[in-house]
Specification:
Strand content: under 5%
Radius of gyration: 19 Å
Largest sheet: 3 strands, antiparallel
Order of helices and strands: HEHHEEHHHHHHH
Number of helices: 10
Strand order of the largest sheet: 1-3-2
Number of domains: 2
Distance between the termini: 66 Å
Helix content: 55-70%
Shape: globular
């Protein structure tokens, strides 16, 4: 009698994940961004083991874009995927905080050094608007609006360093974002967002005076918040 193979399911419930909808064709790039957001937002939690078959069914997509998106996420260190089977969301290790933020500080400071002298009026306006949004939502427990403005600000600081540089920095930014989201309650309570908003507001007011030490300072603020939050030490 042939053996019936039972389908392996995910280690967490995927019921909260809604079908993926996009006008037009689903591309690997757009779907990759969608999956990354599900992980960063915690809809697919850190350390979870996910059935790719089940996830594809839940999202209403074919296996091809899912497989390609998983390959891209694996290259970024966000998941470890078995071919056509399961994907494991990389568990966060508090011991990696120094490495992640250290690499991000060095890369972003270099990008700032190259880009800031070339900023024109429209780019400075973009930076200023992003900081204004961050200021408005600095104490909002729903992190999405603040996080989008935060990412927009940081992306606008490094484009002159090139695409490959931006991709590498983005991978570290995402890893740092996962730490930040885990400890965002402590981040808000400790006023870390307000501290960074103040520093970034100053850099927008004097953009051509920005240097590597300034970049190190405001990125380091988040690293400190994540480290103290992981120890339960962050207080008002």
């Amino acid at each position: 009698m042939p053996r019936i193979q039972r389908r392996r399911r995910s280690s967490v419930s995927l019921d909260a994940i809604k079908p993926y909808r996009l006008n037009g064709t689903t591309t690997a790039g757009s779907f990759h961004e969608h999956l990354r957001r599900l992980i960063l937002d915690g809809a697919i939690p850190n350390g979870a083991s996910i059935s790719q078959v089940e996830l594809a069914e839940r999202l209403g997509v074919s296996r091809t874009p899912l497989r390609e998106a998983m390959r891209m996420l694996q290259a970024e260190g966000i998941v470890h995927a078995e071919h056509n089977r399961r994907a494991h969301v990389t568990a966060l290790d508090v011991g990696d905080i120094d490495t992640v933020y250290g690499c991000r500080v060095l890369l972003e400071a270099t990008g700032v050094l190259v880009t800031v002298p070339l900023l024109d009026g429209s780019k400075i306006t973009e930076l200023t608007e992003a900081v204004a949004t961050m200021r408005k939502h600095a104490t909002d427990p729903n992190a999405e609006i603040w996080a989008r403005a935060h990412r927009r600000f940081h992306r606008a600081l490094v484009p002159e360093a090139g695409r490959e540089f931006a991709r590498t920095l983005s991978a570290y930014f995402d890893r740092a974002e996962r730490f930040r989201r885990v400890f965002q309650t402590e981040e808000i309570a400790g006023g870390v967002r307000l501290l960074e908003e103040s520093a970034l507001g100053s850099s927008c007011a004097h953009p051509h005076g920005a240097d590597r030490s300034g970049a190190r300072a405001h990125v380091g603020t988040h690293r400190t918040a994540a480290l103290l939050g992981s120890r339960g030490d962050l207080t008002l």
